[in-house]
Q: What sequence folds into this?
């Protein structure tokens, strides 16, 4: 492997030769160009990275200063805690004024929005809330010019919602996430490249890669050179009875749908076998045996799962698209490939968490390092694409090309499954897991990225035409928002991790290995048995995050918490965290994303999200309570103030709906929690 940093010809010359543009204003300062703005704040960030106290902020990512600076676009986005938050609030926020009355009941309608939009599907990041749904909450709880905070921002859909509101109705947004992969994606969404420039750059990148790797993705069939669109590989099992290998299409035909456990006779001894036999079938489980090979990238032998190429889909000008069997000669050519590339690729060891050791059992597939997720041919192609994307000098073009390459990155790995009866396009991997299928589709760069590139151009067009809302993105833990001033946020919308639903740092490690900046896992709010984190530890982290959100939110203002978990213990932990932080819950509604996820369909998880509406009590109540604490007057003052925050009448399907929060037992619970959180004896 050679780390090549030479310039990539004139691939991006037409973009980089464009004029820098006129003066720009940023945080109250005027710069002669946007590049001058970026250089100014990069220098300030570079100095800040030398401060040991700055690096003590919880969730400071793992990466060199050089790599953090290369990803960042300060002050709008930093791949570390953002030191410019206070300046952003000063320039775009409104001071908290206790004399200004803010009266807003909770949003009492169930929200239903689709996930099938160009912007939503632009990147394959894990869980996302449709921005159209978030916009409904923004319109209800905020006014134009308000500042919205999402401290579990993921891929930035709250920021997208702020940007897609009509012009003149802008809400500014602060986004925070622990994962560098998430904040990188958010930054590209919120500061997209000029669509025409991205169109030219991405087309040039894809063309250059396809031409350079053409020999890897062509084959001569009947005297005609055909392009390989994808190739199907099957894991080679051993029959538990005769110990002969099973590497034929028998395995494929026995797996008509992903997850099936059909039995079939061994082609050698005719014994009944299956990948996952049922108790009543009488079949025996196929055996998986690891082989050993020398890993050129690591410099020592490693274990691997033997696989055989079965069929491929090809296309040529003479006979069009068709599927053919893999020839012996072609198989020999593939077997000669190794883990070497002319371009840098990551060889990071995988983090050891639930997915690594228990759920997906990656070592049992011989996957212990990031590059093991790739076939040698895939690695050569993807490392070349990443090199070209990272070579663009203009910041937004470079970030958008890296976004483009990473958007289908998992479809270029052995996570990409093949289904004989329903394979129609790439990205057939399971979201939210690192599941490695027995039958894999290895796809060519043209087949993976051609249509994706066109869809991204359209998505960037939509975002480029968005309003003038300002954004700031910080990469850190939401349990330590010390750089965010007190009582400066007008509304909080969060979709936090829930229990052990998703292990984000494990799932993000493929993306983050290429970005060279990785998640600091210590403050990650997940349940993980491999780290001895149960519901108690999870609840402690969530209480810490909610306490910071309470501090940052203006008194009397609202927070919406999207909840998705079927565990009652996690549900109780979230409520206890909210109450102990000082929030008062006022309503719970549903959020329907219409299209269900794999886990909802196959694993029986809850079908809809819940949205908890909670508020920070206003200054008036807090000041009066200091005088009335521990008295009956204090109790009734809280109850009266709380009921003014609750809806009086809610209509559903033409009938009045019972308002749970107005029932006596819940009013009593909220009152007790209010007293306990403030260390006051309950007088009733």
A:
């Amino acid at each position: 492997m050679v780390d090549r940093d030479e310039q990539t010809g004139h691939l991006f010359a037409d973009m980089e030769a464009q004029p820098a543009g006129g003066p720009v204003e940023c945080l109250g300062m005027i710069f002669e160009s946007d590049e001058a703005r970026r250089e100014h704040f990069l220098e300030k960030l570079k100095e800040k990275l030398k401060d040991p106290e700055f690096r003590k902020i919880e969730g400071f990512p793992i990466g060199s200063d050089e790599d953090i600076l290369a990803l960042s676009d300060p002050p709008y986005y930093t791949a570390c805690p953002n030191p410019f938050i206070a300046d952003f609030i000063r320039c775009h926020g409104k001071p908290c004024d206790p004399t200004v009355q803010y009266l807003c009941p909770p949003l009492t309608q169930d929200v239903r929005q689709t996930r099938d939009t160009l912007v939503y599907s632009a990147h394959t990041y894990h869980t996302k809330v449709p921005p159209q749904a978030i916009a409904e909450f923004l319109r209800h709880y905020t006014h134009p010019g308000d500042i919205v905070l999402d401290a579990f921002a993921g891929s930035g859909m709250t920021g997208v919602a702020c940007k897609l509101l009509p012009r003149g109705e802008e809400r500014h947004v602060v986004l925070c996430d622990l994962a560098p992969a998430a904040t990188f994606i958010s930054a590209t969404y919120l500061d997209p490249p000029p669509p025409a420039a991205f169109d030219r750059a991405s087309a040039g990148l894809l063309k250059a890669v396809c031409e350079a790797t053409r020999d890897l993705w062509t084959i001569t069939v009947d005297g005609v050179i055909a392009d390989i669109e994808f190739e199907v590989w099957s894991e080679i099992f051993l029959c538990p009875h005769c110990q002969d290998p099973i590497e034929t299409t028998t395995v494929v035909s026995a797996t008509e749908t992903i997850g099936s456990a059909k039995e079939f006779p061994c082609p050698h001894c005719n014994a009944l076998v299956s990948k996952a036999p049922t108790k009543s079938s009488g079949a025996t489980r196929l055996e998986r045996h690891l082989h050993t090979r020398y890993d050129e990238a690591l410099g020592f032998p490693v274990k691997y799962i033997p696989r055989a190429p079965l069929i491929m889909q090809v296309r040529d000008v003479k006979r069009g698209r068709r599927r053919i069997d893999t020839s012996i000669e072609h198989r020999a050519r593939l077997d000669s490939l190794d883990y070497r590339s002319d371009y840098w690729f990551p060889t990071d060891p995988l983090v050891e968490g639930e997915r690594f050791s228990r759920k997906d059992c990656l070592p049992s597939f011989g996957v212990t390092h990031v590059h093991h997720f790739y076939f040698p041919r895939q690695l050569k192609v993807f490392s070349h694409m990443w090199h070209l994307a990272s070579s663009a000098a203009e910041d937004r073009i470079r970030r958008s090309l890296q976004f483009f390459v990473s958007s289908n990155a998992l479809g270029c790995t052995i996570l990409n499954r093949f289904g004989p009866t329903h394979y129609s396009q790439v990205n057939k991997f399971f979201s939210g897991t690192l599941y490695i299928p027995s039958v894999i589709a290895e796809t060519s760069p043209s087949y993976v990225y051609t249509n994706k590139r066109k869809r991204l151009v359209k998505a960037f067009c939509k975002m480029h035409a968005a309003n003038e809302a300002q954004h700031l993105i910080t990469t850190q833990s939401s349990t330590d928002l010390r750089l965010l001033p007190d009582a400066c946020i007008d509304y909080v919308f969060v979709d936090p991790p829930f229990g052990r639903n998703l292990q984000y740092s494990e799932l993000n490690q493929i993306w983050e290995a290429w970005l060279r900046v990785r998640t600091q896992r210590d403050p990650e709010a997940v349940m993980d048995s491999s780290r001895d984190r149960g519901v108690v530890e999870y609840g402690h982290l969530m209480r810490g995050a909610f306490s910071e959100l309470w501090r940052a939110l203006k008194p009397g203002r609202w927070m919406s918490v999207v909840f998705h978990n079927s565990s009652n213990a996690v549900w109780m932990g979230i409520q206890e965290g909210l109450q102990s932080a000082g929030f008062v819950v006022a309503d719970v509604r549903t959020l329907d994303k219409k299209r269900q996820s794999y886990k909802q369909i196959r694993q029986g998880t809850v079908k809809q999200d819940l949205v908890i509406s909670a508020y920070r009590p206003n200054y008036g109540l807090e000041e009066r309570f200091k005088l009335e604490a521990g008295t009956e007057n204090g109790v009734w003052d809280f109850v009266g103030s709380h009921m003014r925050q609750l809806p009086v009448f809610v209509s559903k399907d033409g009938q009045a709906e019972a308002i749970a929060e107005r029932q006596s037992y819940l009013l009593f619970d909220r009152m007790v929690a209010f007293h306990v959180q403030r260390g006051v004896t309950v007088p009733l």
User: Anything to note?
Assistant: Residues 42 and 69 are 7 Å apart (CA to CA). The first helix runs from residue 13 to 16. The chain has 22 helices and 24 strands. The chain has a mean pLDDT of 85.
